[in-house]
Amino acid sequence: MTFEEIKALDDKYIMHTYGRSPVAFVSGEGATLTDTEGKKYVDLTSGIGVNVLGHAHPALVKTVAEQAAKLMHVSNLYYTEPDVRAAKLICDHAGMAKVFFANSGAEANEGLLKLARKYSFDKYGAKRTKVITLQNSFHGRTVMTLEATGQDKFHNYFFPFTEGFIYAKANDIEDLKEKITDEVCAFLVEPIQGESGIRPLDPGYLAEAAEICREKDILVLFDEVQTGMGHTGTLFAFEQTGVKPDAFSMAKGIAGGIPMGAVVASEKCADVLSAGTHGSTFGGNPLAAAAAVTVLETLLAPGFLEGVKEKGEYLKKSILDMDLPAVQGIRGTGLMLGIVVDPEKRAGYVSELLKKGVVVLTAGTDAIRLLPPLVITKEEMDIALKAFKEVLG
Ligand SMILES: *Cc1c(COP(=O)(O)O)cnc(C)c1O
């Protein structure tokens, strides 16, 4: 089909919940995408942090094809090998105890919030139900995760929302202290706020917040849906914060493009979600789990994540060194970067970049967000840098 044919059918049959860019992609390789006209683009989005191994990665393609031909799904009523292998890789690396597999970030966060409430219920009864999240956070699109999200614009239309969320100011320890009451069971944060503009939390704030929470047996939860799976230069962002959460969620990049999410818990709360209290038909099915094993093994191979850090530094330094008038700064780390620009002009820059064959994301009001596949090459980065120079120069 041509782009026009696809767009016409999309307009007619797909609900208009997304603002789409005027391009239809048909194939990809590494960090390069090809559209319906055969035009090539450098992908600096990895499908919003998902395609960590890029497009058509040979090992991942092989795993998925072989697993699909063997066994795709049997439900969680039976044992399978791929999910235990994926869970062991995650726990061993993270220093965690147990995993629950889901299918998306929002579903992983729902599981994480259920775990926190039940942890508290089991120990203290039904009086500690509240969860503190941060202003400008983003935790997902289900009714509970919308309410967990600390942005008013998400608390609309779908009333009644799930009760029990309190929004604290990021990096403001006094505000957090004021908001902690005897009813709070958990503190949930993104170590780097992604959707709201690539805003890392201060390590000092996180350390102090974690200490306050632990004194009161309030669970420290990280939403690593976007920061997890290597984009920050370590497998999980918490490895760089100095604070290890009691439990965390992950999704986006975990299976490299096959839908998957996970709740990962430390010893302290590993057995909270007991038989019959939580579940998911698709969660951890052999196809997604086998893909996750290949992605995890690739990311954890010696040197891979160091390479991500180096690429991130190259990209960041090259952008700053060009001293482009439109660039007001860069936030973030590794290959999770936000180029700060004038909010009024951002949409124009993004569409100009697309015309020049570079696909980028936005985040918050002022950031051009870069989340390239972790396998991006220097040549691909240099094509993108040339386009930045032209568009932002
Ligand atoms: C993307 C994202 C989510 C939601 O994930 P879905 O897979 O879209 O449900 C939740 N939290 C964070 C931090 C995210 O970046």
Can you walk through the features of this model?
39% of the residues lie in helices and 18% in strands. It is of the alpha/beta class. It has a seven-stranded mixed beta sheet with strand order 4-12-11-10-7-5-6, with helices on both faces. It has a four-stranded mixed beta sheet with strand order 1-2-3-15. Strand 10, helix 9 and strand 11 (247-250) form a beta-alpha-beta unit. Pyridoxal-5'-phosphate binds next to helix 5.
Brief rundown of the structure:
The protein is built from 13 helices and 17 strands.
What's the helix and strand layout?
Layout lengths: L2 H11 L11 E5 L2 E4 L4 E4 L2 H4 L8 H13 L10 H14 L3 E5 L2 H20 L5 E5 L8 H6 L16 E4 L4 H7 L4 E6 L2 E2 L5 E2 L2 H13 L3 E5 L14 H4 L5 E4 L10 E5 L20 H15 L3 H18 L7 E5 L2 E5 L2 H13 L2 E2 L1 E3 L3 E4 L7 H15 L1
Parallel strand pairs: 3-15, 5-6, 5-7, 7-10, 10-11
Antiparallel strand pairs: 1-2, 2-3, 4-12, 8-9, 11-12, 13-14, 14-17, 16-17
Helix pairs in contact: 3-10, 4-10, 11-13
Pyridoxal-5'-phosphate binds next to helix 5.
The largest beta-sheet arranges its strands as: 4-12-11-10-7-5-6
**Counting H and I runs of at least 4 residues, what is the number of helices?**
13
User: Helical proportion?
Assistant: 25-40%
Oligomer: single chain
Beta-strand fraction estimate:
15-25%
Bound molecules: pyridoxal-5'-phosphate
Radius of gyration, CA atoms, in whole angstroms = 21 Å
Question: What is the total tally of β strands?
Answer: 17
Tags for this model:
393 residues, four-stranded mixed beta sheet, seven-stranded mixed beta sheet, alpha/beta, 13 helices
